[in-house]
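Re-running the complex after MR caught last week's input typo. The corrected sequence lines follow. Everything else is unchanged.
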Amino acid sequence: MTDSKSEILQGTLDLMVLKTLAAMGPLHGYGIARRIEQISEEALRLNQGTIYASLVRLQQKGWIKGAWGASENNRKAKFYSLTRSGKKQLSAESENWERIASVIGRVLQLEERG
Amino acid sequence: MVSNLKTLSSRIRGMFSHKRQEEEFSDEIREHLDLLTEENVRRGMSLAEARREAKIRLGGSAQLRETHRELTGVPFFETLVQDIRYAARMLRKSPGFTAVAVLTLALGIGANTAIFSAVNPILFEPLPYSHPERIMTIWGIFQGARSRVTFYNYRELLERNRSFDALAIFELWQPTMTGPNEPELLDGQNVTYGYFRALGVEPAMGRDFQPSDDAFHGPLVTILSYGLWQRRFGGDRSILGRQITLDGDSYTVIGVMPRGFDDVLSPTTEIWSPDQYNTANITDTNSVEWGNHCSVVARLKPNVSFGQAQADIAMIARTPMAEFPRPRWANLHLGFIVDSLQDDVTRGVKPALLAVVGAVVLVLLIACVNVTNLLLARGAQRRGEFAMRVALGAGRFRLVQQLLTESLLLALIGGVLGLLVAQVGVKTLVALSPPDLPRLSAISLDQKVFLFALGLTAAIGLVVGLIPALHASRSDLQTGLKEGSRQSGGSHQFTRRALVVAEVALALVLLVSAGLLLRSLSRLLAVDTGFDASNVLTMQVQTAGHKFDDSAPTGNRVRFFRQALENVRDVPGVESAAFTSLLPLTDDTQYGSYGAEFEKDKKSYGVFRYVVSPGYFETMRMPLRRGRYLNKGDAADAPHVVVISESLAKEEFGNQDPIGQRAHVGGFPNWPWYTVVGVVGDVKQASLIASEPDAVYITPEQSWFADEAMSLVVHTRGDAATLTPNIKKAIWSVDKDQPIVRIATMEHLLAATAAERSFTLILFEAFGIVALVLAAVGIYGVLSGNVTERTREIGIRVALGAPRGNILRLIVQQGMALTALGALIGLAGALAASRAIVSLLFAVSPVDVITYAGVVVVLAGVSLIACGVPAWRAARVDPLVALRYE
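Corrected-run output:
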């Protein structure tokens, strides 16, 4: 349960969920999963169940909140939206991510030259 | 940090709206599933296919809900309740397993709790006094051993020491209390004024002794114990200042000790009175003040260390002063022994108690190993269940948690039952305990004992559960599901066998120790005492009251004993009877030692002085080696004669004839010479172990003083005990006021001298038997499980024509191999353990071959039986049934 691979995946999934909600406004779980898959141009095929673990974690940290509403075909669904602290967290996390990504990128280039 | 707190608070809030949350989550994922299905249908799948694909994309709904529950709940508390319910259900489902495991644990926990409750106050808890570590005892040294000191030695220590706040002597005192109620012999102590100060206690009512109370011929005062005050005086507060009659003298009650005061120096003591010696008579070395009969207790000053006190006392011993002259027997050349009271009190029993602790810990280990083994076996049977739970989304940690809950629940039930076992155990322990076990009154199931039992239970629950839980959670999901519960995993078999080997080894260690103790005891009881104890009844008859004050051999005492003896001899059923001043194998022998000096070479011996009426040797069936026994003719006006023991005759006269030789006895040069008229066989005197056989026998009429108390020995026809009332009546017909105490058959006294050993032995035997049974259960369990798991293989072997004898041998061999390995390891352990109990052994080597061989044979026999049952089952396997078995 606690090996390092899933830990990294968890963190990235949380970040993706936050970003998706920021870009799209309130969405239900299916919508978030679908959106992430579309953005990745189907390169990423999620086990969609993992979205829910991410949603619980983000709610517990107070970064998103959920509310019941009607889905596009008028059925009951839970819609999630960013909170104010969620927005702050997103910008902090995004910066952090970009920094790490650029470091990794540079390291990888370095390896190619060597 | 803040976000962690937020998470926790959200989780806790979640606990209260739990059900609703779970329903909502179910709705949420159902909706998700529907949306996914619709999407798939749009892509052109059939409805069934679309639904199937959606389920795969989303993941199992049960697993999702489990994850959700784990994330939203407070996992520990929430799952705990659930786990306990589940564990209880599992234990109920297999009552056989539960019963065996719980009983095993109850035995282990109960035995350990009982022993802890007994050993803790004796060995480990501080004595119930203020600053008990400062209380010391001081002893003289005689022939390498501790000895009591003289009164003037005490006076010298009291005046010269710089280390002690209080220093006092104490002696045994057994007064007879008379008055309105029937006469009663009390256990008491004569003490000097510092006694209670040294212990650090004060009377609850009235006053403590003070220096003036110790004055020679001072006023007679006494302090009562709380128990005596309640029992004899109904707790009457006006007791202070009242007169009570002790040994015919009037004593003023000046105090009552607090309730619960435990005089560890003499636990049965109920009454205290000052030791009133003459301090002005120091130059008369024949006086009672120069006798070695005083024990010393003292309290260190707060700023003085144990070492400083030792140096101080040693310096006093080394540097005699003119004002404190010392005779030869009190010259203190060897110095003093200073010891802490705690060590002093537990000195005698410590080795035995520590051995018992060792034994009971072994029992606990075996019990734990056994339950671990049972849990492993059950784990193997439940592999299908575990695999199913993992498939349904249980994490490994979750599974371990569940299994530990089960083992903890088992341990808890075992612990509760164990407390019941402990309660019975403590009662039995107290009933069986040897008479010199200190602090008996402090043995009970108190709060500390409960805490101990609780801690033990928790530890056991974790210890026995951990290995099986890790094993179970490691099991491979695939094979577990596929093969159901039948096939064995190699690694758990290995663990179980290792555990059985350990169990056999531990049992062997315990059994060898028990065997060595058993052999010691039987050797001890087979020791030739030098007299015949069968059909001999003994009792001590005392002379109390002022008419017996005269201690001259012509006085009332001797006359009373002579008349009493004549009456006893007339009692029907009495074959022969006699009085003796010393009864062998009792603590009489602490006081009966004197010097004897032979005329021939002026050589002096320490001997026991037996004052016996004629007929003593015949009653005790002591063999005559030379000359004659004492007889009626050896009266006051006849020539003084003495019968000596065989060893004394040999030491002094070698092969020469000692008859007719003369000796002084008792160190009184002015007393007539005693002429040796006979030599009798040696007897065991102070104890069965000690061999200090030198003794002299004289008649009461020819002794230099008449003893206050004499022991009656009666050889009876038939059962000795039934004659007791008639014999007492016969004595009381001479004088009805004389106390008769310590009534016992000689055989009983013999058994009592071995009481501590038999106490230890009984415990070791009980523990040894438990260990043996548990080991047998362990072997049986492993083999029986093994046979079940191999039923198919055995069936095939039989089908292919293997003779049933071969199958039988296969299984038995397997079991016996485990036993042999365990026995081998156990032998090494037993060699170490036997060295630890060497001080409890008597006339048996710690590597006694017979014991070791005997134990190995017994163990092999028992494990053969334990192997036999599963082997027999294996040999009867029907190949047709076996092959259909899966």
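None of the earlier attempt is carried over here. Residues 285 and 327 of chain B are 7 Å apart (CA to CA). Residues 484-488 of chain B have pLDDT under 50 and may be disordered.
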